[in-house]
Amino acid sequence: MFWRTMCCAWVHCWRALRWLAGCKMAGAMAVQVTIYLTESDSWHHRPLHLEILKYLREENVYGAVAFHAVAGFLGRGQVRTAHLVEAGGELPVVLSFVDTDEHASLVLPRLREMAAHRLIVRENVVIEQGNLDFRFRIADDLLVRVECFGLL
Description:
Blueprint: H1 2-22, E1 28-38, E2 42-43, E3 46-47, H2 48-58, E4 63-68, E5 71-72, E6 80-81, E7 92-99, H3 101-114, E8 119-127, H4 134-148
Antiparallel strand pairs: 1-7, 1-8, 2-3, 4-7, 5-6
Helix pairs in contact: 1-4
């Protein structure tokens, strides 16, 4: 009988957790950080944009993307365009990521070090659809499981 009660409680907790995890965070606040680089920027002899993406992944940032520009300029430099002939590695690469304010604040010092002389823009954004709480789902699941079994 004891096991049947625990299993029943677990099923109800699991259903509640699945419902909460599926809820949208429309109107929730987040931070979007955009870094303006060039394709020739490097970090320890590797492309900087790839090293930043690797670092953000290691730090469990919610989502990041690097865009390779077809044309653009940085600062007061002249406009560079992509042709059949390479532009000499001076085309812009724009890297952007979105996460909570607290988590962005934790990764920004290292990013400032990696992209020391590049423009980094931080702006508050509103989540229109989706959920940034994926990192906490496993922890919530364990907490709910422990609470359901009466171990807390």
